[in-house]
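Sync notes, pocket subgroup
Present: LS, DG
LS reminded everyone that the earlier model was apo-only. Rerun requested with zinc ion included. Inputs:
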Amino acid sequence: MALRHRIFQLGFDVLGASGAARLLRPLTQGRGLILTLHHVRPQRPAAFAPNALLEITPAFLDQALGRLKARGFALVSLDEAADILRAGRDGPPFAALTFDDGYRDNVEYALPILERYGAPWTLFATTGFADATARLWWLELEEAVRRLSRIETTVAGEQLSLPAGTDDEKIAAFDALYPRLRTLPEPAMLDAIAGLAEVARVDAGAFARDLCLRWDELRALAKRRDVTIGAHTLTHPMLAKHDESFVRHELAEAKARIEAVLGVDVRHLAYPVGDPTSAGPREFALARQAGYETAVTTRPGHLFPGHAAHLLALPRVSLNGLFQTGRALDALLDGLPFLLWNRGRRINVA
Ligand SMILES: [Zn+2]
């Protein structure tokens, strides 16, 4: 388990058991929060499931929405969330739900539950996924490791030969590969993964085709009053790894394309991957210049009044598939794990 996840696990368990989180809530809970979701679908049991953090079950979504309501959170759209921050408006805590990438399971499994709770939600669409041309490289890598019994590749001059015959070996191989690949320039990372996928005979094009909403499906969603369509770039790159003209193109063209095809205003952006290695101060400035009103990262945290001055660098709270428990939900809503993670800072935009 990654260090970040171990820290959160510790936060959930120790603080949940001690009752400290509830006592500290007045200090740690922000004005509101934006939830990050990816897949919502029934659990598929598998020992090797390196992307499991990116999916929750319909039952957990139901539980999360129930917990939000029980704790008095107002379920709001991203526009309303931005309005509340901009106006400095008081009131009950709020939660805005956001779904990244544009998965079809969001419509199949999440939508009926969201509808039942009257929850508005935002779907961040990657145009290349709707076109089935962009690569869900993290799934290509997972599938390659699943199929191969040994991983042979070269990453940044380092020759790797990793056993991958058993589930434990596959987990270890993925954990060794993934962080190394993430440090590469993005084209080199994509080439390395494409090489492994080819050896493993993975049909890389199948992921977007099978999993992602196409334009006609997005068009139907865009007509709904409870759905806001936001942009998640053209090809889902880690923007901070690219030159400025590339980033400008990804941000402006994704907005223009979605607006043209769906006939809606696109005011909101989610930075792909969204951590500090993918989106930093340069991206926040370029997103503003591209005409977005808000943009969300995957930096963990609640929203505080000070975020009114940082609407293009908003933190989110991930409903992480590794922590699908009531105690984890309470810790996320209390906010204490985030203040610990951010070393006490409420605003982290550097
Ligand atoms: Zn994404």
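DG: The longest helix spans residues 244-262.
LS: Residues 137-203 form one domain.
Action: DG to write up.
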